[in-house]
Design brief:
- The protein has two domains: 121 residues, 3-Layer(aba) Sandwich (Rossmann fold), CATH 3.40.50.2300; 99 residues, Winged helix-like DNA-binding domain superfamily/Winged helix DNA-binding domain (Arc Repressor Mutant, subunit A).
- Helix 2 runs parallel beside helix 3 and helix 6 packs across helix 8.
- By secondary structure, the protein is α/β, with parallel strands linked by helices.
- Helices cover 42% and strands 21% of the residues.
- A five-stranded parallel sheet has the order 2-1-3-4-5, with helices on both faces.
- The structure holds calcium ion.
Length: 237
C-alpha cells in the first residue's frame, strides 16, 4: 500500500483535540498517524518517517520535550509544538531545542494548517535546494540579493547597515520559522551578552522603519513578544 500523501504524526493525548485536528488534516489530504504517548510516538516516528510532527507537551508518560530531543538527535523533520503552555520561557526552550514552530491552545484550525504548510514548504526547500542557491530570496515584493548583500522592496533598494542586513538575511534563511532572540543574536553576533536582546530589538526597530511598514499592516517580519522573530513566507491565497 503506497500513497503520496504527506504523513503527519500527531502526538496528543486529548481525544477531542485529536479528533478535531485529525479530521481537519485528513480533509486537507494529509495522512495522519496518531500517538497518545511519547513511547508510542517514538516507535511510530521510526516506522513511518513522517513529514511533519505536531507535538503536545503535556503527555501522560513523559514531557513532550523528551520526544523533541529524541527526534532532533538525528532528524530535521519539522516539529510544530501544540501546547496549552503559553508562557514565553516554554516557547523559547522548545524553539531553542529545535522545534520549528509553536501554536498555543486554543488555536484555530486555519492557523495550524497554515503552519503545517509553511513547515512542509521550508523543509522541502532546504532538503532539495539547500540555502537558496542563485543567491536570491524573494518574498512578495521583497528581494534579497545575497551576493551583493542588498535588499529591495518593490524594486527600491533599502539601505541597511551591515548588522541590519545580517539580521534580515538570517531570518530569510529560516523563513517561516519562529527564531528566538538568542538564536538570532548567536547567528548575527556569534556571541551573546547581557544587552544582546535589546541590541537586536533596536536594530529591528530600525529595519522596520526603513522597510516603511505602517502599523497594523501585515509585515515581512513578525515579532512575538518575549520569544523572537519570524520572517513570513509567501501568502498562499
Ligand atoms: Ca496533553
Amino acid at each position: 500500500m503506497t500513497n503520496n500523501k504527506y504523513k503527519i504524526l500527531l502526538v496528543e493525548d486529548d481525544a477531542n483535540i485529536c479528533t478535531v485536528v485529525a479530521t481537519m488534516l485528513e480533509s486537507s489530504d494529509y495522512q495522519v498517524i496518531l500517538a497518545q504517548t511519547c513511547a508510542l510516538a517514538k516507535t511510530l516516528f521510526a516506522s513511518y518517517q513522517p513529514d511533519v510532527v505536531i507535538l503536545d507537551l503535556g503527555l501522560p508518560d513523559m514531557d513532550g520535550m523528551q520526544f523533541l530531543k529524541f527526534v532532533r538527535q538525528d532528524s530535521l523533520t519539522p516539529i510544530i509544538i501544540l501546547s496549552a503552555r503559553s508562557n514565553e520561557r516554554d516557547k523559547v526552550t522548545a524553539l531553542d531545542m529545535g522545534a520549528n514552530d509553536y501554536v498555543t491552545k486554543p488555536f484555530s484550525s486555519a492557523e495550524l494548517l497554515a503552519r503545517v504548510r509553511v513547515a512542509l514548504r521550508n523543509y522541502r526547500h532546504s532538503a532539495e535546494e539547500g540555502k537558496f542557491p542563485g543567491g536570491r530570496f524573494k518574498c512578495r515584493d521583497m528581494l534579497i540579493d545575497y551576493d551583493a548583500r542588498q535588499v529591495f522592496i518593490g524594486g527600491q533598494e533599502i539601505k541597511l547597515t551591515q548588522t541590519e542586513y545580517n539580521i534580515v538575511a538570517l531570518l530569510s534563511e529560516h523563513c517561516g520559522k519562529m527564531m528566538t532572540y538568542s538564536a538570532i543574536v548567536k547567528g548575527v553576533w556569534g556571541y551573546s551578552t547581557e544587552g544582546s536582546t535589546k541590541k537586536l530589538q533596536v536594530n529591528m526597530a530600525n529595519i522596520r522603519k526603513k522597510f516603511g511598514a505602517r502599523p497594523g499592516e501585515t509585515w515581512y517580519i513578525t515579532n512575538e513578544l518575549g520569544v523572537g522573530y519570524r520572517m513570513n513566507g509567501e501568502e498562499e491565497e
